[in-house]
Specification:
Elements (H helix, E strand, L loop, with lengths): L40 H18 L6 E6 L1 H13 L5 E5 L2 H13 L5 E5 L16 E5 L1 E2 L4 E2 L14 E4 L16 E5 L10 E6 L1 H9 L13 E2 L2 E2 L14 H16 L2 H22 L3 E3 L11 E6 L9 H17 L16 E4 L6 H20 L3
Parallel strand pairs: 2-3, 2-4, 4-7, 7-8
Antiparallel strand pairs: 1-9, 5-6, 8-9, 10-11, 12-13, 13-14
Length: about 375
């Protein structure tokens, strides 16, 4: 195949940190509150605005509370695990590396005794029917490193007794999250909205707040995890009075992303654009002689972190090491061409490619990328002749 003449205008297809919104320039940061305390009146106003805009765009219920927390999505999830688990048994679900990390936290770090662990190989979901939502449940909504997402939350009981703790970091702002089924929702700015790193979001239902105010874990909590004082929720944390110092430069960038999202039509617009992006890749995969989705059930294919594998029967003629090298060489070739950056599979995932298709990516760029993928695969395959 002849090398394509048209390259993606923006080659940033990384699954985190993700591409900035279309049209972004550093000028959007000109109003950042720099050199001022985040606890000053204008500092708190900026942080409160970020929280209010988050509620508006995501459609968070009025009786849920929202906090900006340190440590990205990891910090937000671990705050919930360390602060809320232990009151009852917990069911853990994992079908990729980040979910597996939460299993390690609960089973090996917190060392809870009553833990059920339900896992699946990359490309599949665990059996949701065995999950008991009268226990606490911890899960990712979208498997960022496997490209496999939940289809719905029908498996979560409306009258559950346990808490549902959902890591939604590559799902929030790209997939419909049924908040009535979710008690803890977390994500990070650097995923779907293309914000900057180090800040996480923690969204709590009234049931989660009740757990915090009625249950005290056996283990000590570091200051950075403490959400209550004297048995009551520290309300200021959910009004912009952050636990530690946030970057007001990053806050300004997050606000810009939220306002762009609102202008796109809010959550519906974001979801529609991401799903349209997935369709570009899906149409190409359907016609491809060498590429396939890692997800085995089409209904579970992620519309953000799209994971692909090489399905060409030719690959089976190579030894294991050579098979693993093929997608790595393909990704390296496109990186060197300046066509696609950071599209190799995650280090713990099966060999393959991972292409971000969230709303900050343009469909035309994905279309251009598919032509380059075919060219690069042909070049790599020919090198083995």
């Amino acid at each position: 195949m002849t090398k394509p003449l048209t390259a993606p205008r923006r080659p940033e297809f990384s699954s985190g940190p993700c591409a900035k919104r279309p049209g972004w320039t550093s000028d959007v940061l000109n109003d950042a509150l720099l050199g001022r305390s985040h606890r000053s009146k204008p500092g708190k106003q900026k942080l409160q605005y970020a929280i209010d805009k988050t509620r508006e765009v995501l459609g968070v219920p009025d009786d849920y509370v929202i906090a900006i927390v340190p440590g990205s999505d990891t910090g937000a999830v671990e705050m919930a695990l360390w602060s809320m688990l232990g009151e009852r048994g917990v069911d853990m679900m994992a079908w990729e590396s980040f979910g597996a990390g939460w299993v390690t936290d609960v089973a090996k770090q917190l060392k809870l005794e009553d833990v059920n662990i339900y896992t699946a190989e990359y490309g599949n979901l665990p059996d949701l029917a065995v999950v008991d939502t009268d226990r606490d449940v911890v899960f990712t909504w979208n498997g960022t490193t496997s490209g496999v997402k939940l289809v719905n939350a029908d498996w979560i009981s409306d009258d559950r007794k346990g808490l549902t703790i959902c890591d939604a970091t590559s799902a929030a702002f790209a997939m419909e999250l049924p908040f009535d089924k979710l008690d803890v929702v977390t994500y990070s700015w650097q995923k779907v909205l293309g914000g900057e790193a180090a800040h996480g979001m923690l969204i709590l239902s009234p049931r989660a707040v009740e757990r915090l105010e009625t249950y005290t874990p056996e283990w000590p909590l570091p200051k950075i995890f403490r959400l209550t004082k004297g048995g009551k929720l520290i309300a200021g944390i959910f009004k912009g009075e952050t636990i530690n110092t946030p970057s007001m430069l990053c806050v300004e960038d997050y606000i810009d992303a939220l306002e762009w999202a609102a202008g796109l039509g809010g959550l519906k617009g974001l979801v529609a654009k991401s799903e349209a992006n997935l369709k570009v890749i899906a149409d190409w995969v359907a016609a491809s002689s060498w590429a396939a989705f890692l997800a085995n059930d089409p209904a579970t294919i992620s519309n953000t972190s799209v994971c692909l594998k090489v399905s060409d029967p030719w690959l089976a003629t190579l030894d294991g090491e050579a098979q693993a090298a093929v997608p790595k060489k393909l990704a390296a070739m496109l990186d060197a061409e300046g066509v696609a950056f950071d599209i190799g599979a995650y280090r713990d995932a099966p060999p393959g490619l991972r292409i971000w298709a969230g709303a900050t990516v343009e469909a035309d760029d994905l279309t251009a990328l598919t032509h380059w993928l075919d060219w690069a695969y042909g070049e790599v395959k020919a090198s083995y002749a």
